[in-house]
Amino acid sequence: MLDIAYSRDALKTLRRMPANEAKRVRKKIEAYARDPDSQANNVVRLKGRDGYRLRVGDWRVIFDKQGNVMAILAVGPRGSVYED
Questions:
Q1: How many CB atoms within 10 Å of residue 30?
Q2: Residue 45, exposed/middle/buried by CB under 10 A (0-12, 13-18, 19+)?
Q3: Closest by alpha carbon to 69, among 42, 40, 26, 32?
Q4: Three-state DSSP state, 74
Q5: Is 38 left (phi over 0), alpha (psi -120 to 50) or beta?
Q6: Local confidence band at 16 (pLDDT 50, 70, 90 cut-offs)
Q7: Over 80: is that where the pLDDT of 19 sits?
Q8: Is residue 81 pLDDT above 80, yes or no?
Q9: Fewer Cβ in 10 A, N or C end of the chain?
Q10: Is this structure's pTM higher than 0.85?
Q11: What is the DSSP letter of 83?
């Protein structure tokens, strides 16, 4: 099992989004941390930058694996989360 560490921006986004969507996103993150193979079809390595993308409906979670820690870098809508 991976430990989960949220960035300040990711937590801010989760607090501002609708509660039911935030709960759904957190459940997917926890499911991936428990068993990465369970979400294998929703996770893709990013091209052009470090990290991975987890798809949760119209939301995207950008994260990086640092040893035994899953660092959640950003959470956002499908189109704008990739912009730096």
A1: 13
A2: exposed
A3: 32
A4: strand
A5: alpha
A6: very high
A7: yes
A8: no
A9: C
A10: yes
A11: -
Round the average pLDDT of the chain to a whole number and report it: 91
CA distance 72 to 40: 17
CA atoms of 14 and 66, how far apart (whole Å): 22
Q: Which two tokens mark 55?
A: 């798809």
Half-sphere exposure of 47 (CA within 13 A, CB side): 0
Amino acid at 32: Y
Q: Kindly state the tokens that stand for 50.
A: 């470090």
Three-state DSSP class for 43? strand
Token pair belonging to 51: 């990290």
**Over pLDDT 90: what percentage of the chain?**
69
Nearest CA among 40, 20, 22 for reference residue 32: 40
What is the residue whose two structure tokens read 């990711």?
10
